[in-house]
Amino acid sequence: MTAFDPWDPAFLADPYPAYAELRAQGRVHFYEPTGQWLVPHHADVSALLRDRRLGRTYRHRFTHEDFGRTAPPPEHEPFHVLNDHGMLDLEPPDHTRIRRLVSKAFTPRTVEELRPYVHRLASGLVADLVDAGGGDLLTDVAEPLPVAVIAEMLGIPESDRAPLRPWSADICGMYELKPSRETAEKAVRASVEFTEYLRELIEKRRKEPGDDLVSGLIAAHDEGDRLTEQEMISTCVLLLNAGHEATVNATVNGWWSLFRHPDQLAALRADRSLVPTAVEELMRYDTPLQLFERWVLDDIEIDGTTIPRGSEIAMLFGSANHDPAVFADPGKLDLTRRDNPHISFSAGIHYCIGAPLARLELGTSLDALLVHAPGLRPVSEPERRPNFVIRGLAGLRVEV
Prior knowledge:
Elements: H1 9-13, H2 16-25, E1 29-31, E2 36-39, H3 42-49, E3 54-55, H4 77-84, H5 94-105, H6 108-113, H7 115-131, E4 134-136, H8 137-142, H9 144-154, H10 164-172, H11 181-207, H12 213-219, E5 221-222, E6 225-226, H13 229-259, H14 262-270, H15 275-285, E7 291-296, E8 300-302, E9 305-307, E10 312-316, H16 317-320, H17 355-372, E11 377-378, E12 397-399
Parallel strand pairs: 2-10
Antiparallel strand pairs: 1-2, 3-7, 4-12, 5-6, 7-10, 8-9, 11-12
Helix pairs in contact: 4-11, 4-13, 7-9, 7-17, 9-13, 10-11, 10-13, 11-13, 13-15, 13-17, 15-17
């Protein structure tokens, strides 16, 4: 357990050797600093994601007191109201109802219709990077692409989009282990501002519906069920946060992995038909979301260890994606890997509803850079963000 330290810069730089130690030491480990049970094996993580004895919330069955937990501080309420009404942090029946209604507006056809827009946007961003002779791949390509796509889907005007990424980054800071007081204050402030903006946007769309996702969420209904205004607001924030955090970090993590494996990059440049499998392998190899939490609603047992109700499970996605029981030579980056059941998009009822869009964005930007910036190379060693749960770089300077 000494190798697992999510606040150690050396661990953050490369957590995968520590994961190998955890897997070798057993199937479940209690980690005192966070009070969580760590689960590092692919088979266990995959099974627990589908186990209804676990939940993203416990409030549908227990009070805080009944569950042996302390209610969040009152000053954090704006964040929790926003977060707790999104389907990612709900369980059936509310989760089932909201996901069904959101799915009516967020269909595969909707995503496919975005393909020309995503292609034009990615090509334009890459062209600007090439014209400048290089830049920061994070801020010049990886960030603006998914933010613009989600904003376009939601119907957020271009003039209103500047705060979206800062709001999202501040809110997502609360998903790290033991966030600081400053992080919480920034998340609360962003939650208030984002909520106020979306409340106004929803009111406009009620009066003047458009061909956008917000209008679709307002119109979505089934057997008398509709989304409440708070559920619509929380859904929009979730789609933005989850819809771009994974894509941004998968892009820069992926390119940094390619730069460190020049043989694989050369093979990809020589054969762009590898892009679909490359996207899956890059998401497996350096996983954007390293950890996903679940509450234990009823006692469970893992390898003879009883984990009681009220406990918190920390499923290590990054470790599961490097489990040699599932992946041949998991420490090797192999863009031709076909048997690749990575769990970067989760599994079970909380499987990422935006996975098709993420794959479209990742594949399109990767292809655009291969075509228009064939000599793309790093300028310097990038700095890694001091985060564990959401894994990414602070920037990636490149030249063409």
